[in-house]
Amino acid sequence: MSSTEQSLPHLLRFQIGPVQDFIAQARNTRDLWSGSFLLSWLAATGIRHLRKQRGAEFIFPNPEHQPLLNELFRAKDLKTLLTPSLPNIFVALLREGDARQIAKETADAITREWKNIATAVWDEGRSLGLRDRVKERFDSQVDRHLSITWQATPVTGDDLPAYPRDYRLNSRQLDAVRQTRDFRAWNSGGWQTTDCEKDSLSGREEAVVGGPDWHDSVSERYQRFFKHPNDHLGAVNLIKRVWHQAYLSKKEAFAEPIQKFKIRSTLAIASRGKQTSDDEDVSLTTSEKYLAAIAFDGDSMGKWMSGEFLEEEADLRGHHRAFSTCLSHFATNKVRDIVEKDHAGFLIYAGGDDVVALVPADEALACSRAIREAFRAATAEIQGRDQDKRPIQPDASAGIAIAHYKTPLQDLIRAAQAAEKKAKNNGRSAFSVTLMKRSGEGETWGAKWDSGGLELHEDISAAMSQGHLSGRFPHRVSELLEPYQTVDSHTGRYPNDPHFKAHSIISLEFAHVLDRQNPGKTALPLATDLTRYLQKIGDDPQTCLRDVIGLCKTVVFTRRNRAPSASLTPQD
């Protein structure tokens, strides 16, 4: 770096990984929370180091509204303190000092904290049944795990055009660094044959603990964290499993909160609000066995942060301050109440525009919509224009996966993450639901938030709960519509027939079932809801059939946690 460049202010952008796989490798809700909080803790370490530098101005996130970075928060709300709320990306403007040197020191501080945590877990070795012979393997896996990438970009001027240009360049440069990052090749000193099991959660690393004999040697202090005697864990997943006890609980500010913090099990979440911890068991009725994972994420956040949706004369630096404050307010003040108070769920992570939560199956769609509405309200002051110069504001998409509570949790989380990507690929401002049947089959349904699909889903479900419709209603609609998806091998009729009027056929079949399954002839808004929904879907017959059938199957699946509706005499 030239002396001229070194004297300029610099944008510093950091990214810590891995994220999704690391979090998803979870046996239970405690693992999910622990992985998320560990990443937030490491991000907080880097942010604290940067904040000590003279002339450092944070762009994202806003550190003033982050519980882990705000001492006053600690005495006020211990539960909020233990909610993972820092993103794995943070950006700052550094006005003084050698930016590259400061960036290296910040990365070193994060790495040092990660190794301190690993050391604390190893030092509990006797209690955890660790053996000295696995020390080299443990250290190697710790050294290889963490990925920290950063980019320092000089800011060439304070004028309005210069800062946005340099900000976008900084983002592109970091993307390039991540695509060409260094990696350490695996080198174990030659071919070796071992009898080690692989990590049960990742399937990659050789285990450092595991098996029935090891399980019996674990001390009482840690026994409750290892319920599966046949599990084998590598160093990283072992650290994730116990770091809060081995390391975090020894921090003065966290000793009491960690002991009091209740982490509800998937059984407890499926049973709607019972405060059963992850260490206990709970008896469920047959109607209380399904839960949902929600993966919620803001749409086009990179473009919003880089100012691509703003007017050319807009003040991007002021926009960054306002946007970061809005996102922090949303994550720390809104999301927990929506998930836990309003929808009987458990919040895993809320960092800026990114949310991960577990809720009872029948709360999933309503909870997702409530989070989206809170996000829109929190960012209402952020206005921009799309390519056609139409006014827009930030929006978000959600992926939902619904499954039996005994479904492996990492499969459920990954399905929700995949559903979120599907919602974004379908045009954003949308949701996508994956129904994970115990038979191994899967169903999907998704729609735009404003398509009317949610309203139709809710009105059908409400009519069934109130006894106006038989529980057979969505089944029967699906049964009548599914044959239209089958193309006759001789005539090629229905979906491929230009004379096939999907809207009319679907509406008539729907009305027929509505008449037969509504013995009280109660006036219901379902026909109007359906018409609006079909208009939003479009005219493609295949899409119309798929989406209405998917909606009906989702109604059935999401109601599995509810008591049966009032007795009706179902008719064909």
TrEMBL record:
Signal sequence annotation: none
Residue ranges occupied by any GGDEF domain in the UniProt entry: 289-436
Stored CDD domains: Cas10_III
Keyword Nucleotide-binding tagged: yes
Keyword Nucleotide-binding among UniProt keywords: yes
GO annotation, biological process: defense response to virus
Domain of life: Bacteria
Keyword annotations of the record: Antiviral defense, Nucleotide-binding
GO MF assignments: nucleotide binding
InterPro entries listed in its UniProt record: Cas10-Cmr2_palm2 (IPR054767), Cmr2_N (IPR038242), CRISPR-assoc_Cmr2_N (IPR024615), CRISPR-assoc_prot_Cmr2 (IPR013407), GGDEF_dom (IPR000160), Nucleotide_cyclase (IPR029787), Rev_trsase/Diguanyl_cyclase (IPR043128)
Name of the protein in question: CRISPR-associated protein, Cmr2 family
Organismal lineage: Bacteria, Pseudomonadati, Verrucomicrobiota, Verrucomicrobiia, Verrucomicrobiales
